[in-house]
Amino acid sequence: MRFASVDVGSNAVRLMLCHVFEQDGEPVLKKNELIRIPIRLGEDAFLHGRISGEKAHKLVHTMKAFKLLINVFDAIDYRACATSAMREATNGAEIIERVKNEAGLNLEIISGKFEAEIVYSNHIAEHLDNSASYLYVDVGGGSTELTLFSKGKSIASKSFNVGTIRLLHNKIEREYWQEFKEWIRENVKGYHPIIAIGSGGNINKIFKMLKKRESKPLNYENLRELYEQLQMLSYEERISQLGLNPDRADVIVPAAKIFLTIMKHANIDKIIVPQIGLSDGLIHLLYERHKKTSVFNA
After folding, report:
1. DSSP string, 120-179
2. Can you list the positions of beta strands (E) in 175-269?
3. Rg for the chain (alpha carbons), in Å?
4. Backbone angle region of 270, left / alpha / beta, with phi > 0 → left and psi within -120 to 50 → alpha
5. pTM for the complete prediction?
6. What domains sit in the chain, N to C, each tagged with a CATH number?
7. 15-61 pLDDT tens trace
8. pLDDT of 136-189, one tens digit each?
9. Helix or strand or coil: residue 65?
10. Which of 45, 59, 150, 179 lies at a C-alpha separation of 20 to 30 Å from 213?
């Protein structure tokens, strides 16, 4: 079966084209293609409250291209979701309508809570130690989704307007930052030791930069040392010396800070990076919907 997912984030928009097949009764995702376009809708939404005409134009054209690729891929279904930047933009609904009329693609703006549920739908918890506790952390350009689960069950989940673009442009108030840290401290009480599970483009890149094997977690000290190294380099040096893409070289620093803050206040030493995110979660939801429909129509 072939499915497609579109993630319209605050930093970039992504299209995932994916084959899904079953193995021992469980879905296995084989990513055929992942296309990422850095439009940075968050810079408009968080700084000015609305998406500019220029960026709206780029988004519509990107959605046109994505819709064509979905058709060529012969996906049996797709789902397209927009997150924090579009939630906050006063003209978000207007842009959604443009995308539908001009690109023929149904794009929906989802809540932070539902975003966390989609990321959690990757079923990563099912493949971990049921006797342990984990904090699922998804850091994006506009928001951070946190889900604490223990013994295979979700205990607490919350979405915060704490993201890399907001932090980069000093758009997180001190009181809100304190509230963010307080929620972490209060909700992890009684669940130690905790291991973090990180998702998002920045933690994936950090994982690769530290050259960790997929089965090996990062530790707090590794991440802190890299953060300090990144801070010492200029934006241009991060591109020239570390080979970072221009749209990654600035936001990777606030991303590392957010992860370090979470790990510090949750007293977490290790973080697993399975390199999955919202796009993967959407594919899982599409597969489950298709499977239910197939059973119902059988």
Report:
1. HTT-GGGGS-TTSEEEEEEE-SS-EEEEEEETTEEEEEEEES--HHHHHTT-S-HHHHHH
2. 194-199, 218-219
3. 19
4. beta
5. 0.88
6. 2-110 (3.30.420.40), 123-275 (3.30.420.150)
7. 999 999 888 777 788 889 999 999 999 999 999 999 999 999 999 99
8. 999 999 999 999 988 878 899 999 999 999 999 999 999 999 999 999 999 999
9. helix
10. 150
> Tokens standing for 228?
């300090």
Residue 182, Cβ neighbours under 10 Å: how many?
11
Q: Which residue has the tokens 């899982």?
A: 284
- Percentage with pLDDT > 70 across the chain: 94
Give the residue from 136, 133, 60, 65 showing the smallest Cα distance to 91: 60
**Whole-number Cα distances in Å, 58 to 50, 61, 131, 138:** 15, 5, 47, 26
Q: Strand pairing of 2-8 and 77-82?
A: parallel
* CA gap 285, 277 in Å, rounded: 13
Checking if the pLDDT of 240 tops 80, the result is yes
The number of beta carbons lying within 10 Å of the beta carbon of residue 36 is 16
Residue 201: C-alpha distances to residues 14, 126, 215, 281, 296 (Å): 11, 23, 18, 15, 37
Axis-axis angle for helices 278-297, 112-120 (nearest 10): 70
